[in-house]
Design goal:
The complex is a heterodimer. Chain A contains twelve helices and five strands. By secondary structure, chain A is of the alpha+beta class. Chain A folds into two domains: about 180 residues, no CATH class; about 130 residues, TT1751-like domain (TATA-Binding Protein, 2-Layer Sandwich), CATH 3.30.310. Chain A has a five-stranded antiparallel sheet with strand order 1-5-4-3-2. In chain A, strand 4 and strand 5 form a beta hairpin. Chain A starts with a helix and ends with a helix. A five-stranded antiparallel sheet of chain B has the order 1-5-4-3-2. Chain B is globular. In chain B, about 40% of the residues are buried. Classes of the chains: A alpha+beta, B alpha+beta. At the A-B interface, helix 1, helix 3, helix 6, strand 1 and strand 3 of A face helix 1, strand 1, strand 2, helix 3 and strand 3 of B.
């Protein structure tokens, strides 16, 4: 529970993670799917890989999750489903892409965090994700297509008028996503890049004033300027050579929280100015470095944008 | 494609591209509503010998600008002597200081999130005795435990 409940909820009713206790979910996945998902996670899709758990721990987790349904696990034949992948792709574009994305990349955002903006009550899974494709058997995918998942926007395709052969074709199209270019690999950001740092040719005070102008010119609101040690030591005894400028663009902030509500680790936007041995250094975190902790491709993109903005602010202020 | 072979290939790829591990981000869910959880968090931080330097009210800023959001705060905390030691001896760590914990409402419950202190240890490198970060790790898990268990 210590590993899962923070995202999936104590009773599996969801949050940052999907609602595992949903009866229609547990009726449509076998224990092998759960076990492999825990082991591999979903690269780039928030769910991390729990590679250090023992087999016994994983089995205990699966047993606990299965216990929420009160029913035995469904059994799916391991045999591949044979279908026409090309026809399946056409059906996918018509019936599936609006939720799962044109390439099966899934919906945006996280879980069922209703306190955040979202388009659907549950995020549509990324069907092209290597973690999903390794975990899901053909028959399991077919079962979901045939019966849908009550309580989610996923509806039965039999009810929608598709034939069993159409569904087999869709399964083949989804399975063919294994050959897509998406590998789930994370952008490489090395330890050397954990910090963005620039030396300023100006005095500490001049640099701070330059930064204020630069921050505002990038459409940010300057929130506050204080010492790094503010609140930690008695007022007046702070190290006055370490100053933090806090600023915010609320639209960017709102969008970032919609991508992943855990982004507080990046917040608020800050630049720290330090005077050391006659040198004035301007420093920020590198959002791209922090982003690698979150296993979230969408967040990586947002952090790449923010990395560019930080660089521009620093360059403008120290020219 | 043979499924066990596929599993092996994917597992191999994931090992080759290690990315994020489940331990990089430390999270906890608390059954308490946000205001009570916030109080327990700050009390536990102080009980562990740290000073709450500041609370950034993210939700207040957002709602003030017309955006809808649930309660969301950032709690900055540290020990003055440790922060000063770190800024003097590992200046590359300065933009990450003081350490912080995000706390936000999730319906009637509350979620805490922060980075594992090994992040700071990695950035600080050999210049800093890792004992500091090991202590942070123990204290962090203890603080999160306090909040998770609070009734």
């Amino acid at each position: 529970m210590a590993h899962c409940a923070a995202c999936h909820g104590d009773q599996g009713d969801g949050g940052v993670g999907v609602p595992l206790a949903l009866p229609a979910f547990l009726e449509s996945v076998d224990d092998s799917f759960l076990r492999t998902t825990i082991r591999l996670g979903r690269p780039g899709r928030v769910m991390p890989a729990f590679s250090t758990l023992s087999d016994a721990q994983v089995d205990a987790l699966v047993g606990h999750i299965r216990g929420w349904s009160g029913k035995p696990e469904p059994v799916f034949a391991p045999t591949p489903v044979k279908g026409d992948a090309q026809h399946g792709k056409e059906l996918f574009a018509k019936y599936c892409a609006s939720c799962h994305g044109e390439m099966g990349e899934g919906g945006s955002g996280t879980g069922v965090t209703f306190s955040r903006r979202r388009k659907l009550p549950i995020i549509a899974p990324a069907l092209n994700n290597p973690g999903f494709l390794a975990a899901a058997s053909d028959e399991m995918i077919k079962h979901t297509l045939e019966f849908g998942r009550e309580g989610t926007p996923m509806r039965s395709f039999l009810v929608q008028g598709l034939s069993e052969q159409d569904i087999n074709d869709l399964v083949s199209a989804i399975r063919s996503m294994e050959d897509s270019e998406y590998t789930g690999s994370r952008p490489e950001v090395t330890l050397d890049e954990a910090v963005i740092i620039t030396e300023s040719p100006y005095t500490l005070e001049e640099t701070i004033e330059n930064l204020k102008e630069s921050i505002i010119s990038q459409n940010f609101l300057l929130i506050r300027t204080d010492y790094l040690e503010h609140g930690l030591v008695e007022e007046g005894k702070e190290d006055k050579r370490q100053v933090i400028l806090h600023f915010c663009n609320f639209k960017l902030l709102f969008d970032a929280l919609a991508i992943d509500p855990r982004v507080g680790m990046f917040l608020p936007c800050r630049v720290t100015v330090v005077e050391r041995e006659g040198k004035v250094l301007v420093m920020t975190i590198n959002p791209m470095y922090l982003s690698h902790l979150f296993n979230n491709d969408e967040l990586d993109e947002a952090c790449k944008q923010m990395h560019g903005i930080y660089n521009e602010i620093l360059e403008d202020a120290t020219l | 494609m043979n499924r066990s072979f596929l599993f092996g290939v994917v597992a191999g790829l994931l090992l080759y591209f290690p990315g994020a591990s489940a331990e990089d981000v430390v999270m906890a869910r608390c059954a308490l509503a946000f205001p009570e959880a916030m109080l327990v968090l700050q009390e536990s931080i102080r009980d562990h010998g740290y000073t709450v330097a500041r609370v950034q009210r993210i939700d207040i800023g957002l709602t003030g600008m017309g955006y809808k959001t649930d309660k969301y705060r950032i709690v900055f905390a540290g020990k003055a002597e440790e922060i000063r030691y770190l800024t003097e001896n590992a200046p590359q760590l300065i933009p990450y200081l003081p350490p912080k914990i995000s706390i936000f409402a999730e319906g009637e419950q509350t979620i805490l999130v922060t980075s594992h202190p090994k992040l700071y240890a990695e950035i600080a490198g050999a210049a800093i005795d890792p004992v500091i970060f090991e202590r942070w790790t123990n204290d962090l898990y203890s603080i999160f435990h306090d909040v998770r268990m609070a009734e």
